[in-house]
């Protein structure tokens, strides 16, 4: 018999709520660019941006007019090999959520498009579109999902080359904007970058799993390392020390978690030792075998 915990009604309700959040996040994110920046001829980064560029070239040079936005199915085609490439590096639950997001995103991009821009001022459109786009991505990530694309490829490459996920993703995205400048014009590339910048700022405000925190715990509990590993499944280093005021023996524990896990860890520390002294350092650069999670 398996030893896994049987899902309760509360677990099932929470799972349904998660998928509602994922659906809402995808639709909001797609609305950000399909209603505001795409009608003005601007482009996203990532596989969506690559799909939009190919869509434009196909429509302009091949005369294709299928009645839907071809960027939707093209983006799906881009992501299928990426998911096959990275499926061993991500959890099953995350994979299922990502496939769900991809399906919703494909339908939303394909059918949610307008011929006339809602806002004609390019800068205003980029700001509003970026806010909606970033909010959508942030909601998706907080709900434990992803729309795949270069983020998945970045995580896969980061495990094989000595570069961070963010740097790899930025390098891949820069290729899209360089293509926009070469194929279209510099103004298109600049406004597309403005949209991407606003989108990234809003995403960072909502998404906490990309922020690494160093946590130092000073306590008398000899079992705190077990609490850390049980609560966030992270490694922990500890050593013995002495309190300068009390001259009593202490244990000093150190671990690195993401911002979302720091909230979970804080509760576990309080349960183990409410009087523990905790120091949290945010936005760390971490090298080595630190696991960058997408689940």
List the helices and strands and how they pair.
Layout: H1 9-37, H2 46-62, H3 71-86, H4 92-111, H5 122-142, H6 150-158, H7 165-183, H8 186-206, E1 212-219, H9 224-232, E2 237-242, E3 249-258, H10 259-272, E4 277-282
Helix pairs in contact: 1-4, 1-5, 2-3, 2-7, 3-4, 3-6, 5-8, 6-7, 7-8, 9-10
Task: Classify the helix fraction into a percent range.
Answer: 55-70%
Following the backbone from N to C, one meets helices and strands in this order, namely HHHHHHHHEHEEHE
Q: State the low-pLDDT regions, or none.
A: 1-5
Instruction: Work out the number of β strands.
Output: 4
Oligomer: single chain
- SS element count, helices: 10
Distance between the termini: 26 Å
Which structural class do you get from the secondary structure elements?
A: alpha+beta
Shape: elongated
Radius of gyration: 22 Å
Proportion of residues in extended strands: 5-15%
**Main β-sheet: number of strands, strand sense, barrel status?**
4 strands, antiparallel
Looking across the biggest beta sheet, what order are the strands in? Answer: 2-3-1-4
Task: Report the mean per-residue pLDDT as an integer.
Answer: 83
Characterization of this structure:
It contains ten helices and four strands. The longest helix is centred in the first third of the chain and has 29 residues, at 9-37. The chain is 59% helix and 10% strand. It has 295 residues and is α+β, with helices and mostly antiparallel strands. It has a four-stranded antiparallel β-sheet.
